[in-house]
Amino acid sequence: IVNDNLVKRFSQEVQVPEARAFFGFQISNAGIHSEMYSVLIESLIKDANEKNLIFNTIETVPCVKKKKDWVLRRIADDRVTFPLKVVAFATVEGIFFAGGAAAIFWLQEKGVMPGLTLSNELIRKGESLYTDFACLLFKRLVQRPSVEEITEIIREAVIIEQEFSTKGLPVSLIGMDCELMTTYIEFVADRLLQALNCPKVFGVPNPFGFMEMKWANDKMRFDKVVDLCRKNGVTSTSKEKVLDMNVDF
Predict the structure, then answer these.
(1) Which portions of the chain are predicted below pLDDT 70?
(2) Which residues 6+ apart lie within 8 Å of 48 measured at CB?
(3) Domain spanning 61-228: CATH 1.10.620.20
(4) Is 130 assigned a catalytic role?
(5) pTM
(6) Which of 21, 154, 203, 249 has its Cα between 20 and 30 A from that of 31?
(7) What's the farthest any 2 CA atoms get from each other in the chain?
């Protein structure tokens, strides 16, 4: 849904070429992320009925459907102004993935399911970048929504995400404390409010120390990934870069 609305709404409404280029990059990444999620589901879920249920959660799980309906109301509706859509988009990327990300990184702290946790760690970097870009775009707007309008949008999203993390897909299933998760989502919302030049609403501390460490280590981990993906020959010496036509291929 977010991807479709980027194509149909933001790419058409935004006038800045650099922003359009970024959204194109985001759309491409979202396709890769969707494929990764599909591979994970195919690998981890063997029961066909359960697998089908997961692929259709947007219609079968009420709190997930609430997320869809919220996106359609806040972003897809033509009556919504572009500045409000920017805030809603930042909210989707910054809040609607917060609970799931924290749950997966909690598993990572326990040293289980390394494939799931690594892939989601890389995906989360993208989600963080999209949130940051939406906030940057917001700060370039000439006419911005009021603090009250922004706060209302974020409060709505917090309620939906809290319901998702404590009732729809309760984190208690993997041993996490639902109450702490509720607090964490409020903490994330306050961070987003500050990024949008608004005061905090909830005023709660981060209950998950491992997430603080995750944010602090992001750059170090990103550098590690870049190093792994570096093009062949970049660190080679001048002697090693000499073309030799006598080598065997």
Answers:
(1) 1-2, 5-8, 168-169, 213-249
(2) none
(3) yes
(4) no
(5) 0.82
(6) 154
(7) 72
